[in-house]
Structures are given as C-alpha cells and as structure tokens.
Please model this.
Amino acid sequence: MSTPSSRRSFLGFAAAGFSTLALSRLAQAQAATEPRELQVEHAVAAPVSIEVNARPIPHFEPRDRARTRFGSLDYRSGLVLTSPYRGFGGLSGIRFLDGKGERFVAISDQGGWFTGTIRYSGREMVGLTDVEAAPLLGAEGRPITEKHLWWDSESIARDGNLVYVGLERVNQILRYDFAKGGTRARGEVIAVPPALRKLPSNKGIEALVFIPKGQPLAGTLIAFSERGLDADGNLVAFLIGGPTPGQFSVRRTEKYDISDAVLLPSGELLILERKFSWFTGINIRIRAIPLKGIAPGALVDGPALFAADLGHEIDNMEGIDAHVTPDGETVLTLVSDDNFSMLQRTLLLQFTLVE
Model:
C-alpha cells in the first residue's frame, strides 16, 4: 500500500506535469495569435553584463539521496539559475568555448546570446561568473528579432570560431564567425536543403552538430528536426555540406522528440530527447547513435543511456554538450528552457558518462 508521503509525491509530480504541459501548449497557441512584439518581450536589446545567481542541487533524485547512478550516467552536480535580468531564460542550447567545461556560449529562444564561465569546487559546479547577454545579429548588424518570426533560436553548433544557430520557426541557419567580434559578429544565412525549409514551423530545426576532422562525415553540419516526420513517422534530419549531403531519419519511439545532440570524441552521437504527457509530465532521455551509421537515406537508431522524469531534478531540458576532464572522464552538461515561466526553472546539470 502506498504511504501518505508517496501519494503526496505522486500528486505533486502529476500537478507539475499538468502545469508544464499546459504551459507548453499555451505557448504554442500564443505563438500563433499574439502580436509579434509580445513574442519577443524577453529579447536582449544590447550587450550587457548580468548577474546570475546559483543554488546547488545536491541530489538528482530527492526520493533516494544516496543514489548517484542513473543508467549510464553518474550525477556530478547541478544548479538552479536565476537572475534579476528579465531577459535571462529560455536557454535552448549550449556549447563550450574551451576544452575544460568552463567558458560557454548559450542561446535563448528569444534571439539572445549568453556567455560566461562555470565556476567549480572540485568536480562540482558552484556558480557562474562574467555572464553577458547580447542579441543575435543578422547580416545587417541589427538584432534578428526585428525580422518577422526570426526570434526562435533553438539550436547551436560550433566549428572552431564558426558558430551555427538554427532558427526554428523560419527553418533557417545562421553562421557566425566569432573571430570577428564574438557575440557582436553578424550572422550569415547559409544554404539549406529545400526540404528543411518545409519542416513544421514550431517543430523544425531543434539540434545542430558539426562533424570535425578525423570523424566520419567530417565537415558536415547535421540538422535534426524536433518533430518533422518522414512517411513512416520517424524524425527527419539533414546532412548539410560535407562529403555526402542528403537526408536521413532517426527512429522515433515512445513519442519522444529531439531537443539537442552532441558528438563525443569516440564517434558516438548522443541525442537528447523529451516528451510531455498528461499523466507523467516531462520525460527526458539520451540515446547513443554511432556516427558511422549515418548516411543519406539511412534510418538510424540506438539504445537509451539515460532516462528521467519529474521524480528527478529535471525541467524542460533543451541543451546538451560534452567535455573531457584531465582525468579522462566524459562529462555531459544539460541546460533547461524555463519558457520565462514562474512555474519552471533554468537548470544546469552535469553527469559523468560511465559506460
């Protein structure tokens, strides 16, 4: 028989799930009906240094505080991030600018950059320093939010000084050369396949990964749709540039959608996925797909390495990146999009990949 405390926990998690899903659906409905100026009310207007406060998350599963192993991941540390700056939030992607997991660039889904440094005490994150917000600029040097529907920046990839940003509602990709001013650089629209431009406007480009030298498909930018489906109901993705451009699919199971992806030095591609349910709220998982299996026309699949729900310290997890420590540990960093909602949180989580 369930104890009163377990019943209270279940009701709390269910209520959180209902609230999160309702907010998600409300946001989608509002995007189609709200005036443009309301859709970008949290946009960054100009570069500015901001304060970001951090509260530690000591346990990933509050119901079992001794547990640190979750699937193939070992929990390291986590932070709840808040800021008095009203434009902070909506974080939809993150990439490290160094090999140490410290200096980062993140994007907001309202057309903004956030850069800063993660501070550590030993292996645990303790806060952020030197955080700056700046608007994503277009080719004309103006914020992209000035263009109709060009505010939904959902994905980011990095190739050295070149940073790619995917805009979901218009299904365009911008390339920034950080050697020309960092986040002050102007974005250049790159050519994309016609089929990519036809993805659903609110389920379009959600993840970008650039393949570096020494890996299969080197020089290719991979663009994953959130829920653009092929004829068999699988998730559509695109190989842009590189030796074999084309389209392939990722097998869709259990109604999960793609929210981000990262390539490990081992050649494994990790895909971060999420789904919403009226009964369970938010669920996330990470799947591993061998890069060597990706080719035009391929249908790729892979095992789940990790899964979590509202019984764990998660929210709307939308970004993932990886770095390798001096001890050889592969560390995954996840960030959440709070949708600028009082009922959601901006979380920064780190795990060690142990298998």
About this structure: Residues 4-33 form the longest helix (30 residues). The first strand starts at residue 48 and ends at 49. The two ends are 36 Å apart (CA to CA).
